[in-house]
Amino acid sequence: MKQSIEKGFITPQPVFIIATYDENGEADAMNAAWAGQIGGNHLSISLSPHKTTENLKAIGEFTVSFATAEQVAACDYVGIVSKNKVPDKLEKCGFTVTKSDKINAPVIDQLPVAIECKVIELQEEFNETRVVAEIVGMKADEEVLTDGKVDLSKVRPIMFDSSLLCYREIGDNLGGAWDAGKKFM
Ligand SMILES: Cc1cc2nc3c(=O)[nH]c(=O)nc-3n(C[C@H](O)[C@H](O)[C@H](O)COP(=O)(O)O)c2cc1C
Question: Where are the alpha helices (DSSP H) in the chain?
Fold first, then answer.
């Protein structure tokens, strides 16, 4: 029998590592799980006040890297510590960056896939800033490509489990989308 649970949540939640520059060109990164894709070319992220939030408002461009099983500790660290308090937070967890050739934002070298985004709207709602952004490009290391496509079995992205407050690796390919269901046709 189903029981009522006190608080509802959705799953899977992503683990996005948002990387920005501030007005002095200093790179920062933070972990964001309250985020998702809107249609084919846009995404939204729900942000509290952070150094990253200030950077996004000032610069308007950022990258989103997919957190990976290999870098789980570093990805968690950037979600615990603020650059406002620890200016060398990226160096401390072993992250280095390369500036995107498309936008004014850093790409984290240790994470294999990043999307490049431009802010198109900032909505103040529910005591949060909802950033709506356009995806303008994507970078992926050659090692995680199969036939020119990003191969998630090579990336090993992780998700945030907001029930048990932990990270989980995203699992196996269970069948084709728009295809597995055809057996009932
Ligand atoms: C698993 C996890 C998910 C998080 N998701 C969000 C989020 O979606 N929005 C947000 O504002 N902060 C989120 N945070 C908190 C920020 O990542 C954190 O406050 C970070 O230290 C901000 O860094 P900054 O001040 O250098 O920008 C999350 C933290 C963790 C560990």
Answer: 51-59, 72-77, 89-92, 152-155
